[in-house]
């Protein structure tokens, strides 16, 4: 076989070019710290790298959603805390307003404070998040949650009842907002009928979902009786037995419970506080009815009614006093209901924030494990790469030296 000078030259050029390419590739690997620079370097590893990078990007998005949800819930929590303080102050004013020593001027001064609290609460209920959207408007984030309607002289809710959910994990979604429809529009005040003896001191709906079926008929759903032994029983309009919310539950219809003044009895979503009791051995029985349907409104309107009552009520007559006292009792029931809703909402927010924290830790661990796996496919072993670079440099230098000598050899050098 004959080997021409041109063939020798081309073979050496190819070898030098290949050695240069390998050296340059090693230099790029060392510069980037990546073993796989393009899919052709290692197709199997490249496919795994793409998948793992997508997982890391998705986890980063979950973490961003968690941060956003945590900010919203923290803002909501602080807002509800402000609302709770306002409700407590309204309760104090309502109790103070019932004092017989107050005159019209004193009540006007209290009304001015109530008006200030109303403005403060409206501001809290119209809180905006960092994106500039109203926090309690549901999906209608660009709509102010609460506004005053000049035509009806009432405060109206302008949002919807929807909650915004965010994905915080592969199989975990959580509500990052609450609508004013759940937080401020569910103040439900039942009315008491036949309570002339004052057997029931106060009544509130603690669980609207539990009470609503019983009150849907429009009739008084429950009749409460307290006999001269202090035994309290409850009869339902539909004839079914009523059970307390104790653990274990007590059948209030057939068994009943023995109560004292200021005791709390809960059943079917209703919380009642015991008031006056018949004298022992008198043979008397005090009764009261839980009225229906419920009066439902937002706390702003209940506070507005209190303000108007403080300004306009005439307590110089017995009828005026009774009407004013009924307003105060109704306001106290509304404030109790609003306070209960506020406490439940705050508890729910706390639970969600704990869930966010736990999911964030899970995401951090998952991301760490994923990055470790990605590193095993993608990252360069610097010790091996530097050794390989040194060997390639030596090989290339030797190739250049040998090619220089071989390219200068010719038969003509020996024929003189």
TrEMBL record:
The keyword Secreted applies. It comes from the Bacteria. The keyword Transcription regulation does not apply. Residues 3-139 form the Flagellin N-terminal domain. Its main location: other. Keywords: Bacterial flagellum, Cell projection, Cilium, Flagellum, Secreted. It is found in: Bacterial flagellum; Secreted. Belongs to the bacterial flagellin family. PANTHER family: FLAGELLAR HOOK-ASSOCIATED PROTEIN 3, FLAGELLIN. NCBIfam families: flagell_flgL (TIGR02550). This is Flagellar hook-associated protein FlgL. It comes from Marinobacterium rhizophilum. The gene is flgL.
């Amino acid at each position: 076989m004959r080997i021409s000078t041109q063939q020798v030259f081309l073979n050496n050029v190819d070898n030098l070019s290949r050695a240069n390419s390998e050296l340059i590739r090693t230099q790029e690997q060392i510069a980037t710290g990546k073993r796989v620079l393009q899919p052709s370097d290692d197709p199997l590893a490249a496919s795994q790298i793409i998948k793992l990078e997508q997982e890391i990007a998705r986890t980063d998005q979950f973490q961003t959603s968690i941060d956003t949800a945590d900010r919203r819930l923290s803002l909501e929590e602080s807002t509800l805390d402000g609302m709770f303080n306002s409700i407590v102050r309204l309760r104090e004013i309502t109790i103070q307003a019932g004092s017989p020593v107050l005159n019209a001027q004193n009540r006007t001064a209290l009304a001015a404070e109530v008006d200030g609290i109303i403005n403060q609460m409206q501001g809290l209920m119209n809180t905006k998040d960092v994106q500039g959207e109203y926090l309690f408007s549901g999906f209608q984030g660009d709509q102010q949650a609460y506004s005053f309607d000049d035509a009806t002289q009432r405060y109206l809710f302008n949002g919807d009842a929807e909650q915004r959910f965010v994905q915080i994990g592969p199989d975990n979604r959580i509500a990052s907002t609450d609508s004013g429809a759940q937080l401020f529009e569910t103040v439900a005040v039942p009315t008491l009928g036949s309570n002339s003896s004052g057997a029931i001191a106060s009544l509130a709906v603690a669980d609207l979902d539990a009470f609503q079926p019983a009150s849907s008929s429009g009739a008084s759903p429950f009749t409460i009786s307290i006999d001269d032994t202090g035994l309290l029983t409850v009869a339902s309009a539909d004839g079914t037995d009523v059970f307390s919310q104790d653990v274990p539950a007590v059948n209030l219809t057939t068994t009943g419970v023995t109560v004292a003044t200021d005791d709390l009895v809960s059943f079917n979503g209703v919380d009642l506080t015991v008031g006056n009791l018949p004298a022992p051995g008198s043979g008397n029985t005090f009764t009261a009815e839980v009225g229906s349907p419920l009066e439902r409104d937002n706390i702003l309107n209940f506070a507005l009614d209190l303000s108007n009552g403080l300004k306009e009520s005439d307590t110089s007559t017995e009828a005026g006093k009774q009407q004013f006292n009924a307003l105060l009792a109704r306001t106290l029931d509304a404030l109790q209901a609003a306070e209960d809703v506020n406490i439940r909402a705050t508890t729910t927010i706390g639970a969600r924030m704990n869930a966010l924290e736990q999911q964030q830790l899970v995401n951090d661990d998952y991301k760490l494990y994923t990055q470790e796996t990605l590193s095993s496919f993608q990252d360069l072993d610097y010790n091996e790469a530097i050794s390989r670079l040194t060997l390639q440099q030596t090989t290339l230098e030797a190739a250049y030296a040998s090619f220089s000598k071989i390219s200068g050899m010719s038969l003509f050098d020996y024929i003189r």
